[in-house]
TrEMBL record:
<keyword id="KW-0472">Membrane</keyword>
<keyword id="KW-0812">Transmembrane</keyword>
<protein>
    <recommendedName>
        <fullName>Cytochrome c oxidase subunit IIa</fullName>
    </recommendedName>
</protein>
<feature type="transmembrane region" description="Helical">
    <location>
        <begin position="26"/>
        <end position="50"/>
    </location>
</feature>
<keyword id="KW-1133">Transmembrane helix</keyword>
Length: 56
């Protein structure tokens, strides 16, 4: 393959710029997923455990 060195350098510069911005999308996805799991846990807690009352 005959790759143009300028094109390769340009692509490397674009990749470096993307990497410098960090994993913001992955962090947002992890935060949303965690919030959903915690929300489901609270719904389960208030809908199932509290109505049953104290178990003796």
């Amino acid at each position: 393959m005959n790759e143009d060195p300028n094109e390769s350098a340009s692509e490397d510069a674009r990749i470096d710029e993307i990497v410098k911005r960090g994993p913001s999308g992955a962090i947002a996805l992890a935060g949303i997923s965690t919030a959903i799991v915690i929300g489901i846990w609270f719904v389960f807690y208030f809908a199932v455990f509290l109505p049953r009352g104290v178990i003796q």
